[in-house]
Design brief:
This protein is an alpha+beta fold and about 375 residues long. The protein is built from 12 helices and 15 strands. Helix 4 runs parallel beside helix 7.
Length: about 375
């Protein structure tokens, strides 16, 4: 009996040891709780929690705002860049971190975790810098009535004073956060201002897990596209089906012995349409067997594109309904983006605007043969 009892006890102890051992090895699944404070005008409206590292549909969850409050609860399997927003209303960026996150919709602030406090501090500083730029613009606009003098003065301050301060803020914040999600957020913003080599250097500083985030992959993808379509490279071709069912390619124009000015634009883009008078001036002077302009309508509805073409009385050929195909191929992150391609298909210049565009085209077309 004793032997059996001892044997039974040993089995029980061994089983308990296994259970305890298994329990110790079980990963602790962290949870998050996003508690929000909203204005009473939002009561009854739906608010969404979104993941900015997701492609396509990035909505994680939604709840109704009740009694000026809302709460999201879930499992934070990975820390990620996220946000809460109301359709046609407030938006607050945040880091979906473990623990309790407090969101104030009115002030646009997420707080109560170290990463959210750091992100809010960074956003506050960038907001102050953009306000400073706006104040400089307004002050100069009221002070200088001559349009050309105003532009020259504003551009000088923007390039020599404002931009270095903004770059310092981004670079310092990035360097302090290369091992967390904030590093990916700042890199995405910073990449808009950097050359391809500088982006390569920045990405190399990121920890392995942060470098694997979709937001960083997007920066790398765009950077690779910029390298492939940099000045000195042959143009990359694309083919787009037009509203009438025909297909048009960039190669129908480029690489056939003419200089081609390629204008990536959209009907809703004010600065894009603001370049139309400059291009009309260039077109009037150089149109012929040596030069052509080709508009490429991106991120736009075909009917809106066609309406804008008619309104602005644009005469040069257009590739309509291109959407994201050419912008991804050329690493275009904002429009207008105007590219000059040489007669042999070599990309001569990118991101041309205004007087710089006029002088660059003139330098090529006014050459003495």
């Amino acid at each position: 009996m004793k032997i059996r009892t001892i044997h039974a006890l040993l089995i029980m102890v061994t089983s308990m040891a296994i259970i305890v051992s298994c329990e110790k090895k079980q990963p602790v699944i962290p949870g998050y709780m996003v508690e929000g404070i909203a204005d009473s005008t939002y009561n009854g409206q739906k608010i969404y929690l979104v993941d900015h590292n997701r492609l396509g549909n990035n909505k994680i969850d939604s709840v109704l705002i009740d009694s000026n409050k809302f709460v999201f609860k879930g499992i934070a399997d990975t820390i990620r860049y996220a946000g809460v927003f109301i359709e046609d209303g407030a938006y607050v960026p945040l880091i979906l971190d473990t623990g309790r996150i407090i969101v104030n919709l009115k002030d646009g602030i997420a707080s109560n975790t170290p990463l959210n406090d750091a992100l809010t501090d960074y956003n506050k500083k960038t907001g102050e810098l953009y306000k400073e730029r706006e104040n400089i613009y307004t002050e100069l606009k009221n002070k200088i009535k001559d349009k050309d003098k105003f532009k020259a003065e504003f551009d000088s301050i923007f390039i020599k004073v404002w931009t270095p301060k903004y770059m310092d803020l981004m670079e310092n914040t990035f360097d302090a956060n290369t091992n967390n999600v904030i590093g990916s957020v700042v890199l995405y913003e910073m990449s808009m201002w950097m050359r391809t080599g500088q982006i390569d250097t920045a990405v190399a500083k990121l920890s392995k897990d942060i470098a694997s985030l979709e937001m960083v992959k997007k920066v790398v993808e765009t950077n690779d596209a910029l390298k492939k379509t940099a000045e000195g490279q042959l143009f990359s071709d694309f083919t787009i089906e037009q509203p009438d069912g025909t297909k048009v390619s960039l190669s129908d124009y480029a690489g056939k012995g003419k200089y081609i000015l390629v204008d990536f634009w959209a009907s809703w883009c004010g600065p894009c349409r603001g370049e139309t008078p400059n291009m009309k001036e260039i077109y009037k002077k150089y149109k012929g067997n040596k030069f052509e302009i080709v508009g490429v309508a991106v991120w736009d509805k075909p009917e809106d594109t066609e309406r804008a073409i008619a309104e602005d009385k644009v005469e040069w050929p257009q590739i309509i309904n291109a959407q994201e195909i050419p912008t991804k191929m050329y690493g275009v992150r904002g429009i207008p983006h105007i590219i000059l391609i040489g007669p042999d298909g070599t990309i001569l210049a990118r991101d041309l605007r205004g007087d710089n565009m006029k002088s660059r085209v003139a330098r090529e077309l006014d050459k003495k043969n």
